[in-house]
Amino acid sequence: MPLEKREMQLLDENELSLNLIEAQYFLKNTRDQNNAKSVLVLVNGIELAGKGESVKQLREWVDPRYLRVKADPPMMLDQKQTFWQPYASSIPAEGQIMVMFGNWYSDLLVTALHVSKPLTETVFDAYIQDMRAFEQDLKNNHVDVIKVWFDLSWKSLQKRLDNMDPSEVHWHKLHGLDWRNKKQYDNVQKLRQRFTDDWTVIECEDEKARDQQFAQTILAALEYCPEHLSQNKEKWKQAVIPEALLHPENQPASDEDYKKELKKLSLKVAEALRLDDREAIIVFEGMDAAGKGGAIKRIVKNLDPREYDIHTIAAPEKYELRHPYLWRFWNKLQTDEDITIFDRSWYGRVLVERVEGFASQVEWQRAYDEINRFEKDLVNSQTVVIKLWLAISKDEQAARFKAREDTPHKRFKITDDDWRNREKWDEYLNAAADMFERTSTAYAPWYIIANNDKNTARLEVLRAILKQLRAE
Amino acid sequence: MPLEKREMQLLDENELSLNLIEAQYFLKNTRDQNNAKSVLVLVNGIELAGKGESVKQLREWVDPRYLRVKADPPMMLDQKQTFWQPYASSIPAEGQIMVMFGNWYSDLLVTALHVSKPLTETVFDAYIQDMRAFEQDLKNNHVDVIKVWFDLSWKSLQKRLDNMDPSEVHWHKLHGLDWRNKKQYDNVQKLRQRFTDDWTVIECEDEKARDQQFAQTILAALEYCPEHLSQNKEKWKQAVIPEALLHPENQPASDEDYKKELKKLSLKVAEALRLDDREAIIVFEGMDAAGKGGAIKRIVKNLDPREYDIHTIAAPEKYELRHPYLWRFWNKLQTDEDITIFDRSWYGRVLVERVEGFASQVEWQRAYDEINRFEKDLVNSQTVVIKLWLAISKDEQAARFKAREDTPHKRFKITDDDWRNREKWDEYLNAAADMFERTSTAYAPWYIIANNDKNTARLEVLRAILKQLRAE
C-alpha cells in the first residue's frame, strides 16, 4: 500500500478517529482467529520533521491504551549481536500495534554515520537485505511491518532549527548529528534512499497533511487482515531418509576405554568452549529416549554452573503462540550466558509441529528457510551453532522405555505421550530427513550421532562439538 | 529446617542423587496443583568457600535441565530501584528451581563494603528487614526461599589463596575485596552475622561434607510441599462504604469553563510530571464505564508518546498465574519510561479476584499488606504512586452502557461481561471500601473522584495528580 503514490485526501478528523478506533478493535478481535495479525510500525526520518508529533496525534485519535510506543535511543550495530536482538522482545503480539522509534534502521544509520571507518556500500546494502528478509519472515508470521520515513527539505529543516524553542531541545536529541551541516544532511538523504523504496515517505512541510497521511497509512494497515494461507500449491518433495537414521548401530566401547576417553574429551570440550570468543549454542534433537539428557550431563561435567544455561523446550504457552514461532527462542538468547544448550529447539516446527499438525503445511514448509536465516544471523554475530541429532532404532527405544519404567528414578521420564509418539515413528523419520536436507548448512551443519550404544555416542557428541568449534 | 543444627549424615551418593531427582520431578508435578511451589535458592558466602563447586556437584546429582542457575555480578544498591527489581523476572515459576548466586544480599554486602560513606547499622538492618518481608511475601505466594551461607575460617581462606591455581582466578572474581586483609574479612563476617540467623550456614572446611549438606538442604526444601491454605480463621471486618462511593454526584462544569481549565491543568500536569525527578505511576480503578479511558487521554494530551507507557490490565495469562500475583506488575515496571499509567492494576487482587472468587480468602485478605509493602518499596525508590478511583452511580453506569451500545465507535467497548459484572455491584462496593481502608497509606493515598459528570471528573483527576506530585 504505497499511500504516498496516490493523492491523499484530508478526512474529517472525527471520522478518521472513529475509523481508527473501529480498526483497532477489529485488529484486537482477530486474536486467535484465522486472520490474526499484529502491526509493527517503524518510524524514522529527518530530525524535526515531526515524527513524534504525528505519533502523538495518532495516539489522540486512537484508543491510546491499545497503541504501544517504544523509543530506544539508537545504538551502534554490534558485532556480537544480531540487528533484531535488541528489539525482539518488543515485537507485538497478535492483536497489538507497536510504534518503534528506535529500530534496526536507526541503528544502521547511526552506525553508518558515526563509525570512524564508514560502512562500505556493500556492507550497508547487505544489512538492508538481511533486514528486509527478517521483516518478510515477520510478515509471514503475522506481524505486519509498516515503515514510515518522515522527510523534510534542507530549507525547511534550517527554518525549523532557527525557530526552535530552546526548551524543546531536550525532546529532540538530534541523533548526535549536526543538522546545520549540509554535507551531513545530504549524506543522511543518500543513505536512506538506499532503503526507503518500500517505505511510506511523508513530506513534512505541512503538519496537518503529515499527520493525516501517517494516520491513514496506519488505518490502511489495521484494516488489512486477510485470512492466513494454510495449503501450499507446490507438491512437497520428500527427502530420502539417511542411512545413519535407519541404522543407528554403533560399536560399544569397553568401560575402561570409555571412562578414560570421556574424561579427556569432556575436559577438552570445556576448555575449547571457554577459549572460544564466540557464544556457543548447542542444539539436541532426536526421538524420545535418544539420550539427550545423558549427553548434556557429559558436556557440562567440567563447566561451572554459572557458565552455561540449559533450555528444555516443551509445547509453547498460549501467549507465545501469538508471536512468530521463533520469538520464544529469540528471547531465550538475550542472556549473557556464553554457552546455551537446547534440549529440543526451534526444530520442533518441522518435527513435532509438522507431524502432529500443530503447524499448517505452509508454515512448516516455510520454516526451513526461516530457520536457516535465523541461524545465519547468529553465526554472523559471532555465535557457533552446533546441531546434534541422536539416532536410535525403534527397538532400542522400546528397550529404553521398558528400562525406564523399571527404574525408580527414571520412571518420571516416561509418559503415555511417549508411547503415542512412537506410533508415528516413520513420519518422524521423514520429517527428520527433510530437516537434514534443508537445514544442514555450511555455517551450521547437522551431526547425526548413532546412539544405540550410549557411551560411544556420548564420546561422539563431544567430538562433534570439538569439530564444529574448530571448523570455523 | 535449620539443617545445620542437627548432625548431618553423609548419604550414599547414588541414593542422594536418586532422591534429588525424584524430588525434582515431584516438585515439577505440583504445577497447577494445590501444593504447587517453586524453590529459590540464594547462595552467598566467603570467597573460595566453594559455593560454585557445591552447586556444580548438586547439578550433577540432579537432572540439570530442571535446575536453573543465575549468576549476576553484585551491583550496588540503587536509590532509584528497589532491591528486588533486578531479580524479579528471574523468580522461578511453580515447579521450578532457581539457584541465584547474585542476589539482593550480595548487593547489600557490596554496597556496605564499597560505598565511601558506609551504611549505618540502622540502614543496613532496615534493608534486611525489607528483604525478609519480601521473602515472606514470596513464600506466601508459593516461592520457597532457601538461603545458604558458605562459610570459611580466616585460616582456611588464607591457605586456599596460597594454593590457588592462577588459571582459576578468572572464576573467582573475589568480589573486588582484598581477602588477604584480616580486617576486611572480619568486617564481612560481622555484617553477614546481622542477617544469617535464618540461613543454613555451611562450614566449608571439608568439601564432601559441604556438598552433602548443601544437597541435603535442597532435598529437604524440594520434598516439603504442603497444601495451600485457603480459609482464614479470623472473621473479616468489612469496612463501611465511603459516602463518596455511594454519592458520586458532582457539579457539571460549563463547556467553556471546562475547556479553559482542562487546557491549563493538562499543561500543568505534563510540566509537573516532566520536572519531577521521580518516576510516576498513575493507577486507575473504578467500575466499568467509570471513565478511565477518557481521563487517561486528558493526562497524556500534552505528553510526548515516548515519555509514557499505558498498561491495560486484563486477566492474567496461565504462565503468569504460576508466579506470585504481583510478579506480572514487577515486570511491567522494569522499563525506562518515567511515566507509567495503569488502566486497572494489582488492585484486581482485592477487587475482581476477590468478588469472582479467583483468589482464595487467605490470598485476598493477605494482599492488602503485600500491596502496601510493594508500593512502599517503590516510594522509597523515588517513585510517586498516584491512585485514582473513578466513582459512578449504578444508574449512571446503565446510562453509559446504553449510550455505548448506541454509538458506533464505542460499541466495541461493551460486552456481556460488563452487564454480568453489574449484577455484583454491591459486592464490588464492599471490596472497594475494604481496599480504601486498608491501602490508602500516607505514602500512597487513594483519591476518590466523583464521576457522574465526566468533565468535572477529568479536571479533578488532573488536580489530584498535581496534589500528589507536590505532596511529597
Automatic annotation (TrEMBL), chains A, B:
- Polyphosphate kinase-2-related domain ranges (all copies): 31-224, 254-470
Q: What's the short name of a Pfam family annotated to this entry?
A: PPK2
- SUPFAM superfamilies attached here? P-loop containing nucleoside triphosphate hydrolases
Please name the PANTHER family in this protein's record. POLYPHOSPHATE:AMP PHOSPHOTRANSFERASE, POLYPHOSPHATE:AMP PHOSPHOTRANSFERASE-RELATED
Which protein is depicted? Phosphate--AMP phosphotransferase
